UniProtKB/TrEMBL annotation:
Keywords: 4Fe-4S, Iron, Iron-sulfur, Metal-binding, Repeat. Residues 204-286, 335-411 form the Cysteine-rich domain. SUPFAM superfamilies: 4Fe-4S ferredoxins (SSF54862). This is Fe-S oxidoreductase. One of its GO terms (molecular function) is 4 iron, 4 sulfur cluster binding. The keyword Iron applies. Pfam families: CCG.
Length: 442
């Protein structure tokens, strides 16, 4: 993947998003033309998503059969189909930095989305879907939550949402829970800190919008696992959305504003020696990769990135330190486990699989392919069919072993997979829930 003759790994450059040139449309089109022409000559990424097939179709259907036969205004059709999964950068492209051609397709698409956002060419629906904190706070109010959940399941209401908002009528949406995670979290403060050679012996939980408002049980299961392992835990003092939905929208000023709210309390914990655990891979990736690239000179951002862990990454490091309890009481049987894109690109290995395989009488089948949901992308009416098409191989592979459980670190991917699989006897459970079950914890 690196330059020929180089042993350097792929390297991402900082995002120069505060430079006025970043938003210069002619300069953007020039860079898109350069990169698209390289992609046209390679075509290795044709099977990753629908952005590359759309690009190649535009070229093949053009007047010359080359990129010069494509109107630049049609470049937006490619950018709109990119959901910033990062897999082309991490797993396919031979021209990423340090190669002199310096191709970073996802961050080029991010720039395109930022230009479009700055021009005001953003739908109300997209602003709504990316405002996860605001919507979550309103939709999870008692009584309101029951109403929202009922509306989201009513065919007539969903048809209306499809026609007016562009949220596909067939997309299964997550429920909202009026018993939010943060105010109902039970913290055991009696454990003593036990540091290991590789890990801090105390952890702080950044719960994420999804866990706080939609599936608080995931957060409670994480707390039970940490308590069982006698790890002192606290919640992050205050938190807002990590900013990933706004990043995917191209609203970079909103990302900066959220960063200003989140980083101070997180940096304080990082400097106090806490490992910060985030149970949603996209949120972990935001702090580990995107914010450091957007704010490369911010020492607090760097401190948070260094302290941020996927829960299974942290737990498997504790296992290497000889400090993880493996007194599992219940087998899990057959588990079909999907590793989501935003976890794969963290380059930490398959830590969730590794921990699940420590449970006796448990067989884990791993599916390492994009599910097709990808944040809010698969919710949108114009992309729903594509999201289901992308997910077909995943649905088939997840069903093949006849599993007892289907599971993914990304809860929305798991719901998408369950929908794509159709009728199945398998239960959908988050990997943290599976570990809590294996420990025999209530």
């Amino acid at each position: 993947m690196a330059q020929e003759g180089s042993l350097e790994p792929p390297k991402r450059h900082p995002i120069d998003w505060e430079n006025p040139d970043f938003y210069d449309e002619p300069k953007l089109f020039n860079e898109m033309e350069r990169v698209f022409d390289i992609c046209h000559g390679c075509r290795r990424c044709v099977n990753l998503c629908t952005a590359f097939p759309r690009l190649f179709d535009l070229i093949d259907e053009g007047s010359t059969g080359e990129l010069d036969g494509v109107e630049k205004t049609k470049y937006w059709e490619v950018a709109d189909r990119c959901y910033l999964c990062d897999m082309c950068f991490m797993s396919k492209c031979p021209y990423v930095p340090p190669h002199p051609w310096n191709v970073d397709f996802p961050h080029l698409m991010l720039r395109a989305k930022a230009v479009k956002h700055k021009k005001g060419e953003v739908r109300f629906r997209d602003k709504l879907l990316s405002s996860t904190d605001t919507v979550g706070k309103l939709a999870s109010i008692p009584v309101v939550a029951q109403t929202v959940n009922a509306v989201n399941k009513a065919p007539a209401a969903r048809k209306l949402m499809d026609n007016i908002l562009g949220i596909h009528a067939e997309r299964k949406l997550p429920d909202y829970d009026s018993r939010n995670f943060r105010p109902n979290a039970r913290i055991n403060s009696s454990h003593e800190t036990r540091d290991g050679p590789l890990t801090s012996g105390k952890a702080a939980i950044y719960s994420t919008c999804y866990v706080n408002y939609n599936e608080p049980g995931i957060g409670h299961d994480l707390l039970k696992i940490l308590d069982h392992n006698e790890i002192p835990v606290c919640l992050v003092e205050k938190e807002a959305c990590c900013g990933m939905p706004k990043l995917e929208l191209g609203d970079l000023p909103a990302v900066k504003e959220l960063k200003s709210r989140n980083i101070p309390p997180l940096a304080k914990l990082a400097k106090e020696g806490y490992a910060i655990l985030t149970p949603v891979p996209s949120c972990t990736l935001m702090y580990k990769q995107e914010l450091p690239l957007m704010f490369p000179r911010d020492e607090d951002v760097k401190a948070v990135a260094d302290a941020m862990f996927d829960p299974f990454e942290y737990l498997m490091l504790r296992n290497r330190d000889g400090l993880l309890k493996t007194d599992f009481k219940k087998p899990l049987g057959k588990v079909s486990y999907h590793i989501p894109c935003h976890l794969r690109v963290q380059n930490i290995g398959q830590k969730t699989r590794d921990l699940l395989q420590l449970v006796p009488d448990t067989k884990v089948s791993v599916v390492e392919r994009c599910s097709g949901h990808d944040g809010t992308w698969g919710v949108k009416s114009e992309y729903f069919a594509d999201s289901m098409k992308i997910g077909k191989p995943v649905f088939r592979q997840m069903a093949a072993p006849g599993p007892d459980y289907i599971s993914s670190d990304c809860a929305i991917a798991a719901r998408h997979i369950q929908q794509g699989m159709g009728e199945t006897r398998a239960l959908k459970q988050h990997p943290l829930t599976l570990i809590r079950i294996a420990y025999g914890l209530d």
